[in-house]
UniProtKB/TrEMBL annotation, chain A:
Ranges annotated as spanning the membrane: 37-60, 98-119, 131-152, 233-253, 291-320
Keyword Transmembrane helix: yes
Species of the source: Jiangella anatolica
CDD domains: TM_PBP2
UniProt KW Transmembrane keyword: yes
Family the entry assigns: Belongs to the binding-protein-dependent transport system permease family.
GO cellular component: plasma membrane
Protein name: ABC transporter permease
Cited PANTHER family: ABC TRANSPORTER PERMEASE PROTEIN, INNER MEMBRANE ABC TRANSPORTER PERMEASE PROTEIN YCJO
Amino acid sequence: MATLTTQRGPDRSSTPTPARTTVRQRLSRLDVAVSPYLYITPFFLVFLLVGLVPLAYTVWVSLHRWTLGGPDPEFLGLDNYVRLLGDEVFWNAVGNTVAIFVISSSTQIAAALWIAVLLDSRIRARTTFRMGVLLPYVTSLVAVGVIFSNLFSDENGLVNAVIEGLGLDPVSWHRDQLPGWIAVATMVNWRWTGYNALIFLAAMQAIPRDLYESATIDGAGAWNRFRHVTLPMVRGTVIFVVITSSIGAMQLFTEPMLFTPGPGGNNGGPSRQYQTVVMLMFQESFSNMKLGYGATIAVALLVIILVIALMNFLLSRLIASDSVAPSRRRLRRRAEGGATR
Amino acid sequence: MNRTSRTFATVAGIAGLALVLAACGDDADSSSSADGDPSGSAEPEEVTLSVATFGTFGYEEAGLFEEYEQLNPHVTIEAIPPLDGGPYHEDLFTKLAAGGGLADVVAFEEGHIGRVLQQADKFVDLGADGPDTDGRWLDWKTSRATTPDGRLIGYGTDIGPLAICYNKELFAAAGLPTEPEEVAGLFTTWEDYFSAGRDYVAATGKPWFDSSTQMFNAMVNQLPEGFTNEDNEIIVDSNPAIREVWDQVTTAIEEGQSAKLAAWSPEWNQGFANGGFATQACPSWMLGVIEGAAGPDNAGTWAVADVFPDGGGNWGGAWLGVPLESDAREEAVALAAWLTAPEQQIKAFNSAGTFPSQVDALNSPDLLESTNEYFGQEVGSLFAARAEANGEAQHKGPFDGAIQENASSPALQAVEGGTSAEDGWQQFLDETARIVE
């Protein structure tokens, strides 16, 4: 109402409006127009301060030869980026990161789905088990690293003891590439499988039970119920988990670092067998003091993550439109069926 | 990394606390002077000093912090839990570059001194602002922490005169002598040492030394020039002595002499206790490490021989400095001076084997007569003799720490993992070039 009167605007003419209404009106108009922005400002201010400014500063640093605690930075333009594109060590780290992601995600999602199905079925002490799978997630990452590093010890580790017990040759977990990837992926999985299982469980519980009943009546066994009911119904959640874990995997650092022999090592194996991008960034920045080149790697990592996020976005839209279409059709069919009946 | 951020939080917390305490102290002072009581102002202000060290310095073990607090009731010492050397120095240099978060007294190690000296302007000049330092330390110990323009940025704590430690039981089992005097005769030169290793491997099938990186570091430390010359030029590929050391060590790897354990890893620690290797390059501070790793059950198993192949050498040792950013500089300098004074150096030596760097301490009967119960030997006179043989510590450049950690050590580990010595050498050179760039 207030806005209406102002729009009609007797005050546009030369006659002044009574001050009483104007102040109130203006305040209330201001309130409506500005307040929401004011309320969300703190977030953006904080984001600007701790997110955007450091990001822009990183880009700025990446344009220099910037030695940690060294002489004044020297402007290089894009030289660092040119070097990065031809740097075998960087591409090796990218390869390691992607490989560890593929190994960990594929096994992790399969295991999490299986655990979720078990937790979704009627078992005793369900809540205990459901809380139990989350336990690895609350363990200190450093403790995980130390223990797994011992389990996968080349010389006297439990895993090698078992392998030798089976009559096979011991594996050089800390020195060879594929075993190193597997060991690091195992650490990641130990921590995240239970967490993802709970997310899948939540999605599974939202599946209408009558779907399972109909499937059972139609003669579907446990595998077919899982394959044709559960899996399609949790597809969106699987995509969500893949997206979040892919972004997390690109930033993988603590596990492989703790796995590197000798404390504080960022080399990821004697010849960078499992050095991830973030480890290389850390090594260049703080161990080799090349802050400029480290910042370049950080920016490259940001670009990689943005590309992956974009791919994920497109993929999930593609799959979402795929999965929405049949369900609409089904609804329509059901409605039509109802009408004929 | 959690540990680092926790340390940072602790430091920040302490700094905040120190500010509050300082403010309270000011209040008390001004009120007492208002009363016209001159004796009130003589009472020193309450102050909390944080001390950051790495590895084992022996201060905590010898109860030196409590002792200082008793002697100086106004001082509270906050000892920051020590990290291992590598992460500690990364943390130190990051905080130096960031200009905040440092403790009031910080330690830095010999391998990293070149890099600390590059930032000497961030430290208190102890030569000018502290107690007189003339002639108190071994000359080279002081000169290595002095900038070209004469600023002294660290009080020497310990030095690392090198000897050889060995496992008596394994020596006995292999038919080798076990008495330190006899063992010393086996290791006159590196050729002798590695040939004894060859025989040991042939006799027992077990590895002779712990890790090729430890041997390589000790041997390089012994050279007149290491990775960097006096002009701070990197000479890894042009210094033939380094290639010679590389060849000797990699040959020993091929002969099965190395236990291939990454130094400071859990497996390496276990190796001291379960007979994983027979010998170990032993700077004096290694005694504390061995005692901790081998544990009380193995007391008397390890011994140290008064010898180091081809003469002496120095490995490690540290300094205590006071960052300019400290809120309590004078108090921090006083604490650092006290901790590095001869009496305290001897106490630290008795607790952790950190060998004194002060001349008075080196000549003191307390040191020369000191025995190490765990080793069952008079180690004081032994290492004093090693220190005499050792001469000066080598010049370290700003990149030496990084070259050792990210170039030579991984390359040697690669050779231990099956890479050829020639490919490993190339990896060493490539990685060095990457660090120096």
